[in-house]
Amino acid sequence: MGSEGQLNLPVLDFSKKDLKPGTNTWLSTCTSVRQAFEEYGCFIVLYDKASDKLQNGVFGSLKELFNLPTETKLKNTYEGKPLKGYVGQHPKIPLHESMGIDEGATLEGIQSFAEKLWPNGNDQFCKYLFEYAKLAEELDRMVARMIFESYGLVEHYDAYIGSTSYLLRLLAHKAPEQVEPQLGFVSHTDKSFTTILHQNHVNALMVETKDGNWIDVDYSSPTSFVVMAGDALMAWSNDRIKSPNHKVLLMTGNEIRYSLGLFAFCRGILQVPEELIDEEHPLQYKPFDHLALLNLAYSANIKDYCGV
Question: Alpha-carbon distance 227 to 225, whole Å?
């Protein structure tokens, strides 16, 4: 994971058999999750639930998807929701293409997406993407429970999960033809509560630390996922956790980087729990409508939206 002396993100192992609420392993992992979030805003998780068959199926499906004609991909739109559909052919980020699946952890959401792009749907695509999304959702829910538990707020967890919906974004980044690295996606923070990222073997993600250094993130192993705090978690935690700036920087080579992001959003109003307000942490955010946060531009600051 990089040369000696180089900064790396914390790596937490979620593949342990006894990682269940109430066990010592669970309690120590809750602490590690909180520390990693508070220090870096993100971390790498080792999670061995994705079989080779699923990996091959998912990344084969993404290749098939992004090989569709542009006019077909442009059918990925949303009516009346501030979610992003197809993004591509953009002069500032010419190597980037992505598409979004609303209710992306449900079979109905994935089938509805596929039916817009393929005249008869695409059963194989739906099968692989749904299996992957359920796995990422399971991981996201474990992390969310650990966050709530580590702050002594486990009684709030069920209400949070009951109001959560997921956006699944599918991304493709072409390799630059120039020798020097080229921006695949601009520096930004996520608007989600949490984000689960997974990729093929092509690394390109960079994360900014608190002191302004950029870390190259290696999560090219099939069992590696990145868990990232979004702006909503930063607000909910009353700034104990910061949502990290991150970007995609592509190196030359002839391979396309395929990746997936599962973004957790809360339907309704989020607010800082009273237990997270004290002398050291005075209230920083007013209650806010989480989905409305999506109307803000990537460059917009959540402090301007709902800061005290």
Answer: 7
Q: Do 97 and 66 contact (CB within 8 A), yes or no? A: yes
95 — pLDDT class (breaks 50, 70, 90): very high
Contact 100, 76 (CB under 8 A): yes
pLDDT band of residue 5 (cuts 50, 70, 90) is very low
Do 91 and 114 meet the contact criterion of CB atoms below 8 Å apart? no
CA-nearest of 19, 39, 31, 32 to 242 is 39
C-alpha distances in Å from residue 132, one per residue of 109, 294, 296: 14, 24, 29
Pair of tokens at residue 124: 């194989």
Q: How far apart are CA 27 and CA 278, in angstroms?
A: 24
Structure tokens at 262: 């599962």
**Separation CA 279–CA 282 (nearest Å):** 6
What CA–CA distance (Å, rounded) separates 176 from 172? 13
Three-state DSSP state, 94: coil
CA-closest candidate to residue 306, choices 277, 163, 298, 296: 296
For the segment 211-251, what is each residue's pLDDT rounded down to a tens digit?
999 999 999 999 999 999 999 999 999 999 999 999 999 98
Question: How far is it, in rounded angstroms, from Cα 44 to Cα 42?
Answer: 7
Amino acid at 303: K
Helices 107-117 and 123-150: crossing angle, nearest 10°? 140
